Amino acid sequence: MSQLISLLSGQPVIENNDRWQPASASVATLPVMSLEEWQNAGCPGNAGLQLQANDDPEQLPAAALQLPLICLWFERFTDGRAYSQANILRRRMGYRGDLRACGDVLRDQLVMMEQCGFSSFLIRADKNPQDALQGLQRFRYRFRSDV
């Protein structure tokens, strides 16, 4: 079963085909690269970018804002730096691509992640994505900071 949940037209769904894979994977359809890998490869526009918690999104080259996917890495669910990165990318920098939460991603975080600008969530491998999907649909009203 896929561990990827995406927001499609505002509705969360479990995606069966994740077209993004780590650049090191031999079956990578579209590669996801670390910031260093991406820069060393000449900043390709068809790649996804994975930022670590200590990467500063405000220091990214302008080309990064045109990428179709940026993954923000949660080393531990208790580390909230990726929430700030997401907010900076969406609201300050105007990023419009898929902003994905990766790493230690759990059901109880999804609503807050969505409010910070995430549009997809790669749930931890040991967790049930159906359960996580229900957690995302649990709240009827959302906080909106853009109003």
UniProtKB/TrEMBL annotation:
<protein>
    <submittedName>
        <fullName>DUF934 domain-containing protein</fullName>
    </submittedName>
</protein>
<dbReference type="InterPro" id="IPR008318">
    <property type="entry name" value="UCP030820"/>
</dbReference>
<dbReference type="Pfam" id="PF06073">
    <property type="entry name" value="DUF934"/>
</dbReference>
